Fold this sequence. Notes:
- The chain is α+β, with helices and mostly antiparallel strands.
- Helices cover 15% and strands 27% of the residues.
- The chain contains four helices and eight strands.
- It has helices at 80-85, 99-108, 179-184, 207-216, and strands spanning 36-40, 45-49, 68-73, 90-92, 114-119, 126-139, 163-178, 202-205.
- It has a six-stranded mixed sheet with strand order 4-7-6-5-3-8.
- A hairpin with a 6-residue loop joins β5 and β6.
- It starts with 35 loop residues before the first strand and ends with a helix.
- 37% of the residues are buried.
Amino acid sequence: MGGRGSRRAAAPPILHHVLSVQETQTPHLSVIPHAATYPGGRHGRSLRFSHHSDNNEANREITMAVKYWLMKTEPGTYSIDDLEQESDQTTCWEGVRNYQARNLLRDEIQEGDKVLFYHSACKEPAVVGTAVVSRAGYPDHFQHDKRSKYYDAKSDPENPRWYMVDIKLDQKFDQPVTLASLREKASLKGMVLLQKGSRLSVQPVKKTEYTAILKMAGVS
C-alpha cells in the first residue's frame, strides 16, 4: 500500500502497506472558558470547548470534522479484495517510510476519516472503493521487527520513527474509477493525485473531490 509493499507473507495476515520507491522524503491548545470554536489544533480539526463550573469540574466538548484521504496500494501485493477478506474487513496500513506521508499518519488522520482506496502500479490504476479509518495513528511495530522488510534499525522503540493507521472497508465499487477518467474530470484538476510529480502513498483529498468520485462510481 503506498503504498503497500511487494511482500505477500503468509504470516501475519495484517501485512499490507508497501511504500512506493518513487516517494520522496521531505524532511496547544488551551481550554477556552465558555463555548468557543478553534479552527485547527494539531490535527487541523475544528475544536469546540465549553466550560461550565460545576463542583470545580469542567465539561469539554470536542467536535472533530471528518477529513478525506487517498491511500495507494499495489493490487498484486494487497488489493481491495484482500481487505474484503480480512477479519472484520480491517487492516493496518503499515510500511510507510516517507516522512511527509508519515506525518499525515501520525498527526492528521483520525478515526472516522474517509479513504479512497486506490490501486496503483498496475495496468489500469483506479479508485476501487472506499474505507473508513478505524484507528488513528500509532507506532508501526514492523519497524522494530528484524524479520520484516520494513525493519528500521535506526528507529528508537522509545521514540518510534514510523506510524500507521487501521482502516476498515466501507464499499467496493462495481465500476472502478480509473486514473484516465479522473484526468478527464474538470472539477478534479486540482486533485493532489493528478499533479505532476505527485507520488505520495497517502494524500489529502477535498470533500468535493471525494463526493465527485463517488458519483463517478455510481454510488453515494
